[in-house]
Design a protein that fits this description.
With 249 residues, this protein is an alpha/beta fold. It is built from eight helices and seven strands, in the order E-H-E-H-E-H-E-H-E-H-E-H-H-H-E. The protein has one domain: NAD(P)-binding Rossmann-like Domain (Rossmann fold, 3-Layer(aba) Sandwich), CATH 3.40.50.720. The longest helix has 26 residues. 44% of the residues are buried.
């Protein structure tokens, strides 16, 4: 990743912060984009103390103007080679109980934000030396859909579709677009959903019989970010889930 510039949207979250640290440790110059300056600055402090290069830019993914301002900041300092869309929000509301406001919020944060970010950042990623990479973070709930996360699952299914559509759309510009589909990794956004009963059910359905650790996403992230390692890979949906998606009954 030496010489590459990476933007991590949602980089102040648990998984997003891990992605930022991972890319920085591989030599990329990282910009953490998120709503929480406190959490974002904690991530960049870790990176800078470890000898990496990182900065924080405040952004609200549901606000196009905020994303445009953030993209302009990155373009003015050298552009973007790697874009990771890792922002997310979940809800335990059932289909029957989910109200329009919450449904719209889940689609906005988890799906529309990916569309906005790709549309806004793509112009500065065109024809970068060695090509550019967009990595969207989907979810095991994207299909077949899981119970108890109706709105989130629908949005993440959309992320898969958008990823494959943009892979075709942006390939002529030298931009690869892929998605990582994590299994179950404890994070702030899903902590309320991971009750003991729910965890037991997930683990029983996972051939490796455990939840994932954030660092176990590093390999897929670095592979998809590297034009040397995955230069002919676009439109791929990469499962990192301990076999969850391979199991039926």
């Amino acid at each position: 990743m030496s010489g590459k510039r990476a933007a991590i949207i949602g980089g102040s979250g648990a998984l997003g912060g891990r992605f930022a640290r991972c890319l920085a440790s591989a030599g990329a110059e990282v910009t953490v984009l998120g709503r929480s300056a406190e959490r974002g600055n904690a991530v960049i402090d870790d990176i800078n103390l470890a000898g990496g290069r990182a900065s924080f830019v405040s952004v609200d993914v549901v606000d196009r103007g905020s994303l445009e301002a953030a993209a302009a900041t990155l373009e003015s300092t050298g552009g973007t080679d790697i874009l990771v869309n890792a922002a997310g929000e979940n809800s335990s509301a059932s289909f029957a109980d989910l109200q329009d406001e919450e449904w719209n919020r889940l689609l906005d944060v988890n799906l529309s934000a990916v569309f906005r970010a790709c549309q806004i950042f793509a112009p500065q990623m065109r024809n970068r030396p060695g090509g550019a990479s967009i990595i969207n973070i989907s979810s095991a709930s994207s299909g077949p859909p899981l119970s108890r996360v109706f709105g989130y699952a629908a949005a993440k299914a959309g992320v898969n579709n958008v990823t494959q559509y943009l892979a075709r759309e942006l390939a002529p510009d030298g931009i690869r677009v892929n998605a990582i589909i994590p299994g179950f990794f404890p994070a702030e956004q899903n902590r309320v959903l991971l009750t003991r009963e729910r965890v037991d059910s997930i683990v029983a359905h996972t051939p490796m019989r455990r939840l994932g650790e954030p660092e176990e996403l590093d390999g897929a992230l670095l592979w998809l970010a590297s034009s040397r390692a995955s230069g002919f890979v676009t439109g791929a949906l990469i499962h990192v889930d301990g076999g969850f998606s391979a199991m039926t009954i």
